[in-house]
Structures are given as C-alpha cells and as structure tokens.
Amino acid sequence: MLYPLLLKSSRVFLTVALTASLAGLTSEVRAQRTAAAERPTDFLDPAFHRQRRELLRQALPAHSVAVLFAAPVRNRANDVDFIYHQDPDFYYLTGYTEPHAVLVLFKEPQTIGGQSGITEALFTQPRDPQRESWTGRRLGAAGAKEQLQLQYTADNKAFATAGIKWADFGQVLFLDLPADVRDEARDPADLYNLVADFRRLAGVPADYNPAVNELRSLIQRAGLANAANLLPYLEAQSQALPAVAADPYIQAYRKATTEAERQKAVANKPVPGRYDGSTMAEVLSGLREIKTPEEIKLLRRAIQISTTGQQEVMKALRPDMSENAVQGIHEYVYRTYGAEFEGYPSIVGAGANGCILHYETNDKPRLGNDLILMDCGAEYHGYSADVTRTAPPSGKFSPAQRQIYELVLAAQEAAFKECKPGSEFQGPHRAAQQVINEGLLKLGIIKDAAEARRYFPHGTSHYLGLDVHDRGTYRPLQPGVVITVEPGIYIPANSPCDPKWWNIGVRIEDDVLITKAGYENLSAGAPRTVAEIEATMAKSSALDNFKLPVLK
C-alpha cells in the first residue's frame, strides 16, 4: 500500500536513544489470553507487552506520567458498528483488544487504589454478562490482571477516583487524544468520559492542540533535508489551524529564507511544556521501528498468507472475472489460514482503475485483457502484510504491458540493492527513481526526467508492522527493520504520450526485512517476474470447477 512521496506521514518522529537495559526482559511467543475457548495459540505472550511497557516507562522524563487510550468504537450505520480494531500503540503495550480503556504508566512508583509501588495501571471495561451475551466476552479487570499480567487493573469506572495525584507530575505525556467520540448515555465510563475525566483531572487546557507538537517534531526530524516538501504542508496547516499559525517555532521555520536561518530555526527547539503530546510518540516510533523475533514471526505468517493469496488468484484469473471476485479470492485465502482481517482495504484495479493509486471501489464487472493491479495484505494477530502484484487476466503480457512491467521490475531490483544496514531510508527510492527516469526517457514516454513524477508519484518504502504504514524514525536502516519496496508506473488515459501506453498501471511491492548481511525478501513466494507470473497463471486452480448458479 502506497505512502505519499510529499511527506512520509504527518507523523514523522525523532530518533530517541533508549538506554534501558534489555536484561531480564526477553519473551517468546506463547498462548495469550483465554477469554474465549479454543482460540489460536500463537498470540504474543504477555511478557512481550510487559517488556514494551517497561522500555517506554524507562524512557519517560523524571516525575512524569504517560496516558494512552484505547481506540474509539466507530459507527457504520444506524445501530451497527464497524468491527472493533484496537489502537496499535495500545495493543503493543498491553495486548488488550477491547474498547473503553486507558493505560497509565508512571516514571516513579505511585500509590493507586490503596496499593503502593505501582508503575502501571490499566482501567478496563467491566464484565457485564447481559451485554456479553450480545456482543462477546470481556476480560474485565480481573481477567486483564490474570491473563495480560499487568501490575494494577481496575474497572474503568474507577479511573476518576483512583487517587492518581495528577498535580504532582512535572510532565503529563499522551498521544493524540481521541476525538469525534460518541458519548454512550448508558455508560458513565465510556471512552468519551474517560478522556473528559483525564482532561479535567490532569488540567489539560481546553485549547491544547496536539497538531502543534506534531508539526514541531516534523520540523526537527525533516526540516533540513526536506524543506521543499515540508514548507507547503506547513503553509496549509498554518492556514487551517490558528494554533499552528500562532506558534513561534513553526512560523520561524516557515519564514526562514536562507539555509542558515532554517538551521537556526530548527535548532531553536522549544522546551516541552507540562502537557507533552510528542515525546511518547517519538519513543514508540523508536521501539516499533525495530521488530523483535516474536513480531517477525507474526509478520512472516501474515506475509506468507498474502503471497499464497497472490499465487492462487493468478491461477484463477480470467478476463470474465470481476474486480470484486478477485478481491474475494484474496480474502478467502486470508481467512482460511487464520488471518483475522485485511491490513487495509484491498486495492484491486484493472486497466484504468489500476492507475488510481488507492482505488478501493473494486466494482468493475469484467477485467478484460487489461492488467490488474492487486495491492492486498492479510492482518495476522495484529501484524499486516503489504504485497502488490500486477498480472494480465489473459495469462500473457502484451508487448507494451511487458515493457512497463519490466521497467518497474528493474527499478525494484535497484531499490533492493539499497536495502542494507546503514543505508538512508530514502536510498531505495532514489535508486528506483533513477531507473524509472531513465526507462521512461528511453521509451519516449517523457522528454525530461522531471516529468517522471507524473507517472511515479509516490515513495518507494514505508515501515510495516502493526500498522501497514507503521511507526518509525526514518533514520538509516538497521537490522530488524521491515519496510516495503514498491516502485510503480501509472499512465492514465489522455496522458501526454503514445496512446499505446494508456491505462497501463503497474506496481510491484515486496516486504523486506533488513538483516545484518543485507536484506531478506519476506514476500518472495509471490510470483514476481514476467516468466514466473505467466507460468503460474498457466497452472490449474482449485476454483476451476467451482461454479455458482446463475442468478435470474
């Protein structure tokens, strides 16, 4: 799945030096909670989440408290909600998968609920047998303590009265506070009330704007190397948000006219105030960037499932199929192998639709002989794959399709060579961009290298993990980092080139683990070359004899 080239995200964070010792904090994959019988047995062990909490806590400033909220419940229509998906940071630190919860971490031990020596507290939604018979089992405070192994747990109704001495903390750290949250009238301790109680008890100013902290971090990380891309974004944010327009640090950078002025503006970093919406995000970005062996095991599984989906779809592809049917095969494979979700909405676009970067409608009724671009990834126990393949439903690439495909493939091969420890994060993109520039010139599609941006408008890599666009610091690559490598060329109809190229969209995306020796392509199981794709499509499919009745 693509990442915009303009900015890798509005969340770009600083590298944080973590000096905490890992001694005694190792963990391994074992069965997680048993709130429901006969669950899978390869969830992350509670020791993993405890290790993550402790590393975050050790990185907190002295005399501080950190607060994280569970993800909101999102309404789909009327009285139907979307399937709940936990906030990845919250899951990373707790393993808790239910809504209406808050995690509090203390730098120094506190007395909470009458218990002394507390450094972590999780407030969960309570058990409710009547509601559980409708919406599923809950852990409750006792279940969370026993199965997730947190030091202190209590019902969320106790959060406001737990005796946390908010006024004693020099700094109060949090991520973006959940916004646009429904207030459930029947629940006095739902997420809406938990956030309101936190704001009141901790004294968070009503006009506090996390966007200011986020943009300050963005300037500190990307302000010197990416000024050309960053300045238009800051201009737009300044026009949209009065708090941004009034911030001296952001505006000093925005108004700098020379490199020396810009360096001075970046270096003049404001001291974090008592209410800090950026430091914890920076620490989590540093932690989540480097995957542990436990995480890599789950990523491998998600990616293996996804590459199997690509293989099976290629065997089944026919020109008379629909985009929706192709999407359905991918997702059927995911469910068959135990993946709970897709990591993101499946992108299945044929012909002109393949030239729409984040096309998600997937409703073309007949593929025809146009290329079909399939950007799909399974989510397995929270970890997302992200694999793209482009194939001809006819089983054979046309000459024009083949030329564009092999140019993208050559760009990806060049990018792979930059996937090694010490390479700059942008190294794979620069390598891919150079090959595509030269190739488009040679094919006569562009007359100047600067025009290539029209046909290759996105970046080549992003981090992969609990989020498909995962957290990271964008420092040089190092072992344990997992990134995508995904060059592409998209030539919509009416582009200023020979019409034979129109409506050809090609993206090839693989998931790469940086190792001590270089890299490992985790998604190599999906056919990638022209010869491999055509050979796979010539094989029989398990669906060849699966015929549904015709609806009248």
Automatic annotation (TrEMBL):
Protein name: Xaa-Pro aminopeptidase
GO molecular function per UniProt: manganese ion binding; metalloaminopeptidase activity
Protein family (similarity comment): Belongs to the peptidase M24B family.
Pfam family, one: Peptidase_M24
UniProt lineage: Bacteria, Pseudomonadati, Bacteroidota, Cytophagia, Cytophagales
Keywords per UniProt: Aminopeptidase, Hydrolase, Manganese, Metal-binding, Metalloprotease, Protease
Keyword Signal attributed: no
Cofactor names: Mn(2+)
CDD domains to which the protein is assigned, alphabetical: Prolidase
Reactions mediated catalytically: Release of any N-terminal amino acid, including proline, that is linked to proline, even from a dipeptide or tripeptide
